[in-house]
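Records of this kind hold a single protein each, on a pair of labelled lines. With that in mind, the following record should read easily:
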Amino acid sequence: MEAHYFTCPYCWETISMLLDSSVSNQVYIEDCEVCCNPIQVSVKFLNLKLTHFQADSIEQ
């Protein structure tokens, strides 16, 4: 597991998430630890190193 810090797309606070590097491609929803809004998280790992991270609002 690897801690990754980023800005919430709703409240703009810096938050962290634990990322599982054992799964190379992941897309999932996780709530912001500050404002509790749902964030769509997309991550990619190559050789256990983070190569892509994206956190988006699920609102259109």
